[in-house]
């Protein structure tokens, strides 16, 4: 089987991870337009040629060029930016297509394999796979690419070539109800043991300490990696681990095991409970926003909804603590990015959009609806009072997500690992077995790609 087809099959069979992206968790059905286009090849080549001819006639008549942008973050998280594009480019019409994360990969790959697909694609940890399959335009030599810090480009690069440019960063920590903490004499935890003690102190007062939508495999995966960041990735001796892991020369079940086992005390000591496996992201958000729980793990994309549900809440976020006292770590890094379909028929217009996106004006517009930092050189962002407790971590650069920053097959690995942690919470699997599952996926992906 050809390499391109193998990668396409891998992509089709794997759901995209939301750490991808610090992703917006908005659920929803796949838009009918996306479903129709995904199966467009069935309509026959004649109808496609007719569509192209109609489009050419429309453009010659002075109508805007239509650009399709497919994304798994909801349009609301890009609203200010999209309005700005409309003002700056009256000759270009952006057709924004939101496809829910659970089905994004299937819809996108159906279209790409048919030689179609959107002009601009929101991508995350699967960028390397898409680039290796030959679906993405090489952006290395574009002038705007050099305006971004290397840390923002590395996750979207293969063999020194850049295939996507970063939007704002993402990060995830522990949201907490400041008033509830203050009224009960609770301090922000600086160690994992303090974090666990807070759960017990609040429970003794009849307050639910932490809610979690563990129906999704993401939150436990990220919270456990937060502890790994504190204890493993903070050690300079482990700086080469991810490259060794990619090569099959290192195993999570060996290197990470002591730290994930320490994190798992949140399960064995009752901070996370089996009933959380029945809670969705939205249900957990609602519990926290309405004051029914003191803490909830998520990121800035949730702030707007929290404040809509409870405008009076004093909201804060603290980093995931480690075993020793310190600034803590957030899970995150470059969020999603914009890649260009190699087969786009509107390369000139698309590159104009990406060039404008590499300006301070566009970056601030992106951040307005989805808080984060910018990887565009020279752009500084004041994140506000919500993140005061995270300032020390930010200053230390303590924000990392290995699956997006370094791992070649990051999304499938963390999805498998996260689902195995759900089994750990259910009491049917050990932490070592969960890490071994991730190692096995890494081995399988590497062997298949080779």
Automatic annotation (TrEMBL):
Residues 1-19 form the signal peptide. InterPro entries: Bact_solute-bd_prot1, SBP. The keyword Transcription does not apply. Residues 28-64 are annotated as: Disordered. The keyword S-adenosyl-L-methionine does not apply. Keywords: Signal. Pfam families: SBP_bac_1. PANTHER family: ARABINOSE-BINDING PROTEIN-RELATED (PTHR43649). This is Extracellular solute-binding protein. The lineage of its organism: Bacteria, Bacillati, Bacillota, Clostridia, Lachnospirales.
